[in-house]
Amino acid sequence: MKKYLILLSVALSMLLPAATSLAADLDTLPPPPPPPVDHLRPATYDWSGAYVGAYVGMACMDGSITDSTTSLSYLNAGCGVKGGGLVGYNVQMDQFVFGIEGNLETTGNLVYNMQTGADFKFGYDYIGRVNGRFGYAMDSTLFFLQAGGAYGMGHLVDNVSLGGSDERAGQWGWSVGAGVESAVTDSLRLRFDYLYTQFQDTHFTGCGGCDVHGGGNEHEVRAAAIWAF
Prior knowledge:
Blueprint: H1 2-27, E1 49-67, E2 72-93, E3 96-107, E4 109-113, E5 120-138, E6 141-158, E7 165-183, E8 188-199, E9 202-204, E10 210-213, E11 218-228
């Protein structure tokens, strides 16, 4: 019996240093890596703050032009590509977002009417708008409505086939629309929206006296890239 106790004591004395060394090794093991972090955007996106952006879109007009010397009316309708820039500021309260935004855009002629007695082009050298916005945020997605005032520089080219005569006139109006915006990263957002702009009737002295009715009643769809601060 004594022999077995001696052997057990020797075995324990041999194992004790190994166990102590293993415990020390366990104490020096590196900590586990942290869980992966989504660097694209925070879990709950904050829509408050200033932003700038640029957009391209397709615009269509459906107004009319009346020659005041003959009282004949002609369709002032057509479509074209637009582009512009925007700047704005949002304030978020819970899931509701309030903001103000200004944009300035330019385009070529949207209308080219060559029907008998017409022979004119019409478009806007530029259109500027200031719109209020109201939206509902679902984390990184914002659904919004917008409405405000507009000012455009109408551009009429009469007698196109004979070389044309250019005339410009400013037109006041209003706009209303809706859209959806999504945050791709903390700063980058993508937007798609629709905007309707109605301009006042305007008189051009060219073509013997032409009255532009509705200024074109513009329907516009736009895609924008926005950088938030």
